[in-house]
Amino acid sequence: MNWKKWIKYTGVFLMVVMAVALVWISREGKRIYGGLTTRVDYEQFKPAEGSFAITQVNILSADGDSIIPNQTVLIENGLITAIDSTLTLSSATTLIDGSEKYLIPGLIDTHVHLFQSPNDLLLYLANGVTEIRELIGEKDHLEWKQQIETGRIGPKMFVASPRLGSFDQMEGWFMSFSQGFMNVKNAEEARKTVKSLHDAGYDGIKVYSHLNKESYLAVTETATALGMPVFGHIPWSVGFSDIWESGQSDIAHFEELMNALSREFSDKRKIGSFNGNEEAFLDFVGERSDALAENLIKNDIAVTSTLWLTESFAKQPFNLEQVLQEVELEYENPGISEWVTFIPQGLGWLPAVNRYRLPENLTVDQIKGSKKYWETYVKACQILAANLANEGVKIMAGTDANLPPAVPGFSLHDELGSLNRAGMSPSQVLKAATSVPAAWLKSNSGKVLPGYLANLVPVSYTHLTLPTKR
After folding, report:
1. pLDDT of 38-87, one tens digit each?
2. Phi and psi at residue 384, in whole multiples of 5°?
């Protein structure tokens, strides 16, 4: 065989190998985001239609601070139409006995990631979560939202844009291909991107840590002019003063505030260490809380919690098996939890692929140092949760669902427990998962009141430690 033929056949062979590799990579990419998981037939679940009355039920008051006993709640065409202790009901009304039960608004999870599996939509409803805010939006999510609005069973959806970040050309291509980022490098690109996302039907703009200051300011200005809320991370390139003045309406984690404070506390702090100044840093967080609260309230900026997930950071690297036993792992999408070993720091849950696992070959002292770091990290977020809530900052419950180990639907109940243990009262916790996010979302939900959507959850437990109105 002459050299020309050899080059020809070698080229053909390499092209075939590359094509097969691209097909395999594409398939694996779809699998690890849940796209190959067998989809549940949602049409087997048909919502009942007609007029309903929940009788003799104890309802959460509109202000969320007390319980009103022995009420009848009339529901017609998906709306609450009347509430009273005595109502005259039509014979066509289906009666539901609510005696010894409590009726609360449907729960809202303001930080979820559906990725590519619509099965999660059913998990949310099964756990009393009737509304969600998707924070890495895709076209599929917009389609699911539209289907739910026209009759498909599922929680009401708010779909944010893909994450906006600033990268160089090659890194931007990779981040877009592998993680769905939109790369905006300057103000002009930022304005065009926001307008395109608005036209595509996204409900708001998600900003991420990597976004440069020029692009961030252009994003917030353009989105505000278009009536789109901006929310997400605090970009590394901006300071608190930029956040207060920008129009950003929500910060996506307590830990985003904590991380910004850590940069303020010590610009020279090593990654993964507070340089032995853990107690001083916690004191600093407590001292700065009042000023943070004042500015958050003044500029009408909410904070989404994700506290339970943050608390797991101090557990997963050191006792992962126990953590996985404590969550409903069997309901997690297997593609996501199993992940792949050749993509580090991904979404994997299991020991060999866990996103938060420690690097190999650490010394005993390094492991102790890492544990102390994460414990301080968590404590700082708990301090912020209690202090900001008590100062009146709008707190919205969110879970970052599908990041390990936040199982969609189930994890919101874990989140509410964490908020309560951190120092928020039962009333504050309930508001964080109902009326506060409903108002931010401009949704006609979040309260048990006539004229509101009948997104309601009857619960049978009696440890709602709220006063009863007589």
Report:
1. 999 999 998 888 999 999 999 999 999 999 999 999 999 999 999 999 88
2. -65, -40
Closest CA to 379 of 265, 446, 280, 270: 280
What tens digit of pLDDT does each residue of 273-331 get? 677 789 999 999 999 999 999 999 999 999 999 999 999 999 999 999 999 999 999 99
**Owner of token pair 């990579």:** 25
Q: Is 23:104 a contact under the CB 8 Å cutoff?
A: no
The one-character DSSP state at 43 is G
**Cα gap 80→101, rounded to integer Å:** 18
Residues with Cβ < 8 Å from 437, sequence gap 6 or more?
Answer: 108, 110, 131, 133, 302, 396, 397, 443, 446
pTM exceeding 0.90: yes
How far is 446 from 430, CA to CA, in rounded Å?
10
Rounded to whole angstroms, the Cα distance separating 250 from 1 reads 67
Give the 3-state secondary structure percentages of the chain, helix then strand then coil, rounded to 5: 45, 15, 40
